[in-house]
Amino acid sequence: MSDRPSPAVPVTLVVVDAGVSDPSSTRLLADRIAQKTIDALRTTGTTATVRSIDLGSLATDIAQGIVSGMLNPKVQSAMDLLAGADAVIAATPVYKAGISGLFKSFVDLIDNDLLIARPVVLAATGGSARHAMVVDEHLRPLFAFLRALPMPTSLYATPEDWASTDLGNRIARAAQELSVLLRSGAGRQITDSNWGGYQHQFGGNATAAERSVEDVDFDTDLMRLATGGSAPVHRQEPRDDQ
After folding, report:
1. What's the predicted TM-score (pTM) here?
2. Helix (H) or strand (E) holding 17
3. Low-confidence ranges of the chain (pLDDT < 70)
4. Computed over its alpha carbons, how large is the radius of gyration of the chain?
5. Which of 15, 35, 93, 226 has the least CB density, counted as fewest CB within 10 Å?
6. What gap in Å lies between CA 59 and CA 62, rounded to an integer?
7. How much is the pLDDT for 68?
8. Which residue, among 39, 49, 47, has the nearest Cα to 168 in the 3D structure?
9. From start to end of 72-217, where are the E strands?
10. Alpha carbon distance 53, 81 (integer Å)
11. Which fold has domain 11-195?
């Protein structure tokens, strides 16, 4: 038997950014986090693949999904990427002391059980340090509602931060936290061991969702009525004493 340790299972990182400018400082921050995470994982023999969801290019599709309640193929592809992610890097610009409306609209379309126990790095960019608490006051509760696992270190960058070593140190710390959690496999263990105890969205995008339209019994009286049919009349048999 070989004494070599078994190779680590490759992981997939999905970057979600709501930057709309070109170039986008929000996307640049997300990319720096992703690269630092790849570097941290590589030192342990773990390879990582990065997939990106640029919300700016999906703005019209996201708005249509909010209005219609239906996801078109572009938005559904983004959801499929999230469903297959081992970890997420979520980055948004800050406008007027709040996260991007585009980012929030996209999150509103995510199934509540799609990111259960999924590790997430929270990040934002803004014009001044006045908005620094938006990450923890807005993003952290949002992903807590989705039952994800936000990293302890959140990231916020202003134009003045890009040349500072402090931002680089914070990025490295968040990436190391994400790397440790990914290598432990704790997120997947939490999901697998507790999946039955969570409330799930019927026919959702979560890969572990147990029910879809194929599981519906359309032959019941209630479903026949719901689909425009008629339910059979159940006549009560007369009793002998009548």
Report:
1. 0.80
2. strand 11-17
3. 1-7, 193-242
4. 23
5. 226
6. 5
7. 94
8. 39
9. 87-95, 98-99, 119-125, 149-150, 155-157
10. 8
11. Rossmann fold (3.40.50)
